[in-house]
Amino acid sequence: MNSPAALQQLSNALSGSTKQLIVGVGDWKASKEAGMTIVTYALGSCLGITFYDRVRKIGVLLHIMLPNSKDHEKNHTKRAMFLDTGMEDIIGALAKEGADTRSLEVKVFGGAKVTQADNFFNIGTKNIAAFELLCQQMRFRVLAKEVGGALNRTIRLSLATGEVSLKMPAQPERIL
Amino acid sequence: MNEVLPLQMVCEMARNIPCSPWLLPKVTAVVRKEDYSNTELEGLILQDTGLAATVIRIANSAFFNRGRQCETLQDAILRLGRKEVYRLVSSSLAQRWLSAEVKGYGWEPGDLYKHSAAVAIAAQAIAKGRDGFDPEMAYTAGLFHDVGKLALAYSRSDQFDTIRIYQQQSGVSWRQAEHDLLGYDHCDIGGALLEGWQFPVEYIETVCYYSRPQLAAKNERSLVTLVHAAKHLAIMIGTGVGEDGFTTELDAESLTAEGYTSEMLEKFMPEVVTELAKLTGDMK
After folding, report:
1. Is A76 at the interface with chain B, CB within 8 A?
2. Which of B265, B269, B277 is facing A24, going by the closest CB pair?
3. Nearest CA of chain A to the CA of B273: how many Å?
4. Chain Cα centroid distance, residue B71
5. B239: which chain A residues are within 8 Å (Cβ-Cβ)?
6. Cβ separation of A150 and B247 shorter than 8 Å?
7. Among the partner residues A22, A121, A152, nearest to B262 by beta-carbon distance
8. Which of A29, A55, A164, B23 has its CA 20 to 30 A from that of B224?
9. Nearest Cβ partner of A76 from B232, B239, B274?
10. Which ipTM score applies to this complex?
11. Is residue A3 part of a domain?
12. Looking at CA atoms only, how far is residue B236 from chain A in angstroms?
């Protein structure tokens, strides 16, 4: 336990604090650090998708905004803004780390219906449908799905356990 | 319900929040003249030392610096150009006001400014592709659309639990819940504040009616509907959206009448997220 990383980990454990990575809209972050938490705030119609490799203790959190990159021009865009290209990048990165995609624990959150009108801005529903189709094709194990409704969601993935804490306004935090 | 404060009292209390954007209407009036001089613009900006320093700092930033330091505000205005200076002035003044630490609407620190900036960027992006709009004005209208929320949270946060329960039980919009319980809502307050600061009429109309554009005056309805569309784009993106956000009224009829479709507006989302990240740093 003499390396700086180990000392930092010990210090974090003693102080009860954990390190945190924040994922913005259209972004993803990964970590192998046991004391790390990956968080994304205020999911509306966007989806927050967590991937956890329990054997290698690798965790990833992806925050996508739209289902399909092919509907958008290439300028102003990042691949992680879209479900199709975001997932492609993550699967590629995890495969390089030796992860078996079919044993990944996948959890999905968000996809809220942010307006009352049916004919405008129904992206949440489109995101959920696209995610379900992709999971079928990729044969992912989806262990938790908290989607839809008119709710704003904040999620935190713990690298130590693979658990995701879910916070919604005026409701107690839940662990999934 | 505790004692309900009259609207005038809420506005009066809000005027105690530091850094009100009182200078912006004066700058707007100058830049709208066909033949204004940079000296006029400089004279106004110099009334606010912090603002003048910001303009010089941005002119010397890596993005604008062309190998020679700007020593004076005059140099900085020349380098940035009038449009960029106006955008910078409105952003700086709005940010100071909208970043005041006030609790309400389930905000985390900075949420109101980030959401307002998202609406401003979306409004500007939509305006660029349509005839008859000034993108800079659309940007500023978006930036200030929720100004009344800060005033209401500042003076009446004790009422928010009651408003929340009433909204959830009745299923009305949060704005309507404010109106039913207080006799006014954040749009009314925002309108009164902007009127007091002598903002141009299109900004006042936007603040009053962005959630119900069909009520806006005919001359201003197109801009108000544009900000309405931008508001919903920003809500979908989610950044800085308060607990009231998903209950915001959607006026599909006005959007359709102005030729907006869901697919057309969704295409702006990647651009808005990219520009917002540049403006606010880390997204959330």
Report:
1. yes
2. B277
3. 7
4. 31
5. 25, 42
6. yes
7. A121
8. B23
9. B274
10. 0.79
11. no
12. 5
- B269/A contact by beta carbon, under 8 A: yes
Which among B235, B237, B250 has CB closest to A25? B237
CA atoms within 13 A on the CB side of A21: 21
Mean of the per-residue pLDDT values of chain A: 85
User: Could you tell me if residue A7 is inside a domain?
Assistant: no
Which residue of chain A is at minimal alpha-carbon distance from B283? A24
**Interface membership of B241 toward A (CB under 8 Å):** yes
Domain that holds residue A85: 20-171
Domain count within chain A: 1
pLDDT at B3: 62
User: For all residues of chain B together, what is the average pLDDT?
Assistant: 87
Residue A4 lies in a domain: no
**Which CATH number applies to B1-17+101-284: 1.10.3210.10, 3.30.450.20, 2.60.120.650, 3.20.20.10?**
1.10.3210.10
Is-contact B174 B37, C-beta < 8 A? no
Centre a 10 Å sphere on the Cβ of residue B68 and count the other Cβ atoms it contains: 9
Are the Cβ atoms of A123 and B266 closer than 8 angstroms?
yes
Q: Is the dihedral of CA A119, A125, A130, A133 positive or negative?
A: negative
In chain B, what are the domain boundaries?
1-17+101-284, 18-99
pLDDT in tens, B173-197: 999 999 999 999 999 999 998 888 8
> 3-class secondary structure for chain A?
CCCHHHHHHHHHHHHCCCEEEECCCCEEEEECCCCEEEEEEEECCCEEEEEEECCCCEEEEEEECECCHHHCCCCCCCHHHEHHHHHHHHHHHHHHCCCCHHHCEEEEEECCCCCCCCCCCCHHHHHHHHHHHHHHHHCCEEEEEEECCCCCEEEEEECCCCCEEEECCCCCCEEC
Tens digits of residue pLDDT in A104-146: 999 999 999 887 776 688 899 999 999 999 999 988 889 999 9
CB of A74 within 8 Å of a chain B CB? The answer is: no
Residue of B nearest to A64 (CA): B237
pLDDT (0 to 100) of residue A83? 95
Contact A170 B243 (CB under 8 A): yes
Is A121 an 8 Å CB contact of chain B?
yes
- The domain that contains A44 carries what CATH number? 3.30.1330.200
In this predicted model, which residue has the larger pLDDT, B163 or A171?
A: B163
Output A76 or A123, whichever has higher pLDDT. A123
Asked if residue B213 lies in contact with residue B254, where contact means CB atoms within 8 angstroms, the answer is yes
- Measured in residues, chain B has a length of 284
pLDDT score of A16 more than 70: no
